[in-house]
Amino acid sequence: MIKTILFDVDGVMLSEERYFDASALTVWELLHNPLYLGLPGDDFTPAPVEAKIRSVRETVFAKDEVLNFIKSRGINSNWDMVFLAFSYQLIRLCEHLKSSLGEEPASLLAGQINRTELNRLAQWAKEHAADFHIDYAAFTADFANGTAQKSGLLLDLNRIAKERCGVDTDMFSRSSELWQLCQETFQEWYLGDERVAASIGRSSFQKGKKGFLSDEIPIVDPAELREILLTLKTKGYTLGIGTGRPTIETHVPLSELNLLDVFDPERVVTASHVLEAEEEFPDQAPLAKPHPYCYVKGLLGLSAPNREVLNYSLPIANGEEVLIVGDSLADLLAARAIGCKFAATLTGLSGQAARSKFEEEKAEFILDDVRGILSILE
What average pLDDT does range 144-152 have in this prediction? Predict the structure, then answer.
């Protein structure tokens, strides 16, 4: 009998669309903003109108083909998506520059890449890569040549660097300086100038971003969802959250929608807690979904030491008492690792088209949206 229900946020309660918009804008900025690579072909602005946002999203993710591929390989973090998409074009740029500069551009890939190295690449590109073509759609074909899944997809960039540039490297990983730069730039876009310092400890490197946090899109009517969640609480279920959003991006919109207080505050686990655990135990990283860390932490509570969470015996003995509600393969894989039940909502990126995948993976429950939760509980 189910006693604890742990919910994902994006694709379950809130639309993922603004996160994907911010991801695309981050890749676009890193490629075209003169503060980064400054490649020609598009005029960068930190305050694009909605039509421009739609155009950037469609271009960068190749009409969502790239997004669908990344998610199909078990990646659920927008930070990872940005790192993958930008790093791939960075590798292609270094490959292009080899014809003019020899091995020097490719050799940058053997070490850490930060703002200094990006500035060097930007200058080389300005002088020698006027004819470089950013090919967003090529991403899927190159990665499809490999079999990497989940966090291994980030490491697969090292294979592509070897194939395209002939360089042996292990730089491409979640612990790299470039990943950190991608993550912080994404936070600038999503949080905006007013809120970003609370997340990354500094103001926006590129000023002028208003952020998306006050422009969230609920999947179902918040008042209706609140009533459903309160009904679950009345029936005795413990409610928690396991999300890839940082804490501020979880608390602010859910508070504004009058939903946050329904959840047990000890069981609202975010990407901020994941990063803290990775810093405490770097040898265990990455701990983002599909790693089960955030859901195990939600099960045990925020006061549980990370060592206890990471060493907790899986699959759990009482798996039938826990239900995870999510929209992605990463959520399902986390549930499988824990040994608990899983309810898939068809309100993520793929919509109803995801039904066949969840059926193939034998999800215990498949819901059109989160409102169906009451129908599957005793």
Answer: 91
> Could you identify the residue written with the tokens 């060097």?
120
Domain with CATH 3.40.50.1000 in the chain: 4-15+217-376
Q: Which two tokens stand for residue 347?
A: 């309100």
With 0-12 / 13-18 / 19 or more C-beta atoms within 10 angstroms meaning exposed / middle / buried, residue 126 is middle
DSSP 94-119: HHHHHHHHTTHHHHGGGS---HHHHH
> Is residue 168 predicted with pLDDT exceeding 70?
yes
Query: Is residue 181 within 8 Å of residue 115, measured between CB atoms?
Result: yes
Structure tokens at 66: 């790239």
Q: Is the pLDDT score of 192 beyond 80? A: yes
Q: Among 235, 214, 215, 233, which Cα is nearest to 225's?
A: 233
DSSP string, 124-175: HHHHH-TT----STHHHHHHHTS---TTHHHHHHHHHHHHHH-------STT
The pLDDT of residue 378 is above 80: no
The pLDDT tens digits for 228-277 are 999 999 999 999 999 999 999 899 999 999 999 999 999 999 999 999 99
DSSP secondary structure letters along 277-296: HHHH-GGG---STTSTHHHH
d(CA 222, CA 256): 10
Over 80: is that where the pLDDT of 44 sits? yes
Quick one: pLDDT at residue 213? 84
- CA neighbor of 343 nearest in space, from 166, 191, 334: 334
Rounded Cα–Cα distance for residues 191 and 99 (Å): 40
With 80 as the cut, is the pLDDT of residue 154 above it? yes
The label of the residue with tokens 């990665």 reads 143
Other beta carbons within 10 Å of 354: 24
Predicted confidence band of residue 79 (pLDDT cuts 50, 70, 90)? very high
Task: Given CATH 1.10.3860.10, say whether it is the number of domain 4-15+217-376.
Answer: no
**How far, in Å, CA of 322 to CA of 292, rounded?**
13
Residue 84 near residue 136 (C-beta atoms within 8 A)? no
